[in-house]
Write a structure and sequence with these properties.
The chain is α+β, with helices and mostly antiparallel strands. Helices cover 15% and strands 34% of the residues. The strands form two sheets. Strands 6-5-8-3-2-1-9 form a seven-stranded mixed sheet. Strands 4-7 form a two-stranded antiparallel sheet.
């Protein structure tokens, strides 16, 4: 099921509406993440936004063959960047400072990156190695 969802997310972005979402769950904790589908959405990310729902975030589909980096240019919300493998297993966390050009790079190849409110995972005791369940809303 997870591989089918991953394949769906990877192959169909050009045919989906620009505001698609995915639900990511660990135990009783749930995030509703906007999926950055278009090149424009991927490059803009959460820039210019001043608020985001408490249990919200943005999921980026990455090229798993290259090491990806993110920054916080023009991003006002303190975020935690989470790199995930193809099974939605957490590979690493990076807390990012608003309005910073500091690069935060994946330490290993990742299939997804997820931006959430800074501390969202640590406040819920969700650690590296945990696997998130992914489903469509």
């Amino acid at each position: 099921m997870k591989r089918l969802l991953w394949l769906w997310l990877w192959l169909l972005p050009g045919t989906l509406l620009a505001s698609e979402f995915i639900v990511l769950t660990k135990g009783e904790h749930q995030l509703l993440a906007e999926v950055a589908l278009t090149p424009s959405q991927r490059s803009q990310g959460l820039m210019w936004r001043t608020e985001m729902p408490e249990n919200g975030g943005m999921l980026f589909i990455l090229d798993p063959q290259s090491r990806q980096c993110f920054w916080m240019r023009n991003t006002y919300i303190p975020l935690t960047l989470v790199f995930l493998d193809q099974d939605f297993r957490i590979l690493q966390f990076n807390d990012m400072t608003p309005l910073s050009d500091e690069l935060h790079c994946a330490e290993q190849l990742a299939s997804f990156a997820l931006e959430t409110h800074q501390g969202w995972f640590s406040q819920r005791n969700i650690a590296v190695g945990s696997r998130l369940e992914a489903s469509l809303p």
